[in-house]
Amino acid sequence: MAASPPSGGALARRLGLLDAVAIGLGSMVGAGVFAVFAPAAAAAGSALLIGLLLAAVVAYANATSTAQLAARYPSSGGAYLYGRERLGEWPGFLAGWAFVVGKTASCAAMALTAAAYLVPPEWVKPVAAGCVAVLTVVNVLGVTRTARATMAIVVVVLAVLALAVVGGLASGTADPASLAPALPESGVLGVLQSAGLLFFAFAGYARIATLGEEVRDPARTIPRAIPLALALALLVYAAIAVTALAVLGPERLAASARPLAELAGSGGWSWTAPIVQGGAALAALGALLALLAGITRTGLAMARTGDLPGWFAAIDPRFSVPRRAQLVLGAIVLVLVLVTDLRGAIGFSSFAVLLYYLVANLSAWTLPRAERRSPRVLQAVGAIGCVVLAATLPWPSVVIGCAVLAVGVVARLVRVTAARRA
């Protein structure tokens, strides 16, 4: 039997296949596609395409695990719920905590990226904070508004990305030799680091699973929506990576602060710069909008089981959303926007989310044959890939990630011990 939501109110099932794909695609084709290719090229050079392929393989393996688990357990919570049901309370908690803290950092990164494309450096933080406040209100007004807004943003962003690719190809400066993969000075480690960074741009499909309690016919819709959103994102990323490498070259791509704007204008199309910058900001805001919705649904599931205060489990009777959790999350992201660093936030988020998917893969491994929708070997590939990519990220991201996870473990251990004594 699929897990049913505990007391505190149930969320309304309002999202169809197109809504779910839009939220997943909007979460992936967001700030990552505008921000992550430059550091990935700096790590891997022309071997960036190998890193993209590795990230896509791990993402696909993770997606198959997430899809079949979401069909089996169509409630909010994602890998937090799956870990608790299949592996036990502690693995579930680790997945939920990793998701919440990692994606909260992603929210700050998205807001900062959007503001960086919109305003001068001195205005980035206050404008980013304003973006968080506005989108928090949008999410409080209901998930159908979130899905519709995300769908509109996805259409605009895809058009902007197409403009960047066409502008680059129209320059006539594409050099196919730049696509020949060559190991960087750091060797295989550099390629793996690029894959870990690029995974940041793929991780959005989890948002579909975390909204499982709000999807109509989840056993059928979610397994279709996740791979569809992932395939569309991969096609977009591959087109951009190939064009950027061929036109800009790995060195110029790695050094660029706004690589897609530079790509679009490489053929003399200077008029495209403000369009691409606006598209980048819109993409980041679309991803932020979907993230704010997904994180609160995992927080809702954790509050229902006591891993977060039960106060967060309340559902707004009018808009059918976890309003308290949404408002608290918005406040936390506002604080992070004022103190965080963009590149550090991306690395930390990748580390935490890879651990989240590790739990998802291990959970899917335990499913009986009758409930499996993909070969078990994919779960092994996903689990091993998550561990390797997480371990090879820049060491500050690994250290900070382990420290933050340890804080959550200690806090839960204290709570559990106190409850047992009582």
UniProtKB/TrEMBL annotation:
Subcellular location, principal: membrane
InterPro entries, sorted: AA/rel_permease1 (IPR002293), APC_superfamily (IPR050367)
Q: Which UniProt keywords apply?
A: Cell membrane, Membrane, Transmembrane, Transmembrane helix
What protein am I looking at?
APC family permease
Q: Pfam families, per this entry?
A: AA_permease_2
Q: Does the keyword Cell membrane apply?
A: yes
According to its record, how does it sit in the membrane?
A: Multi-pass membrane protein
Q: Where are the transmembrane segments?
A: 20-42, 48-71, 123-142, 149-170, 190-208, 228-249, 269-295, 327-358, 378-411
Q: Which domain of life is it from?
A: Bacteria
Compartments where found: Cell membrane
UniProt KW Hydrolase keyword? no
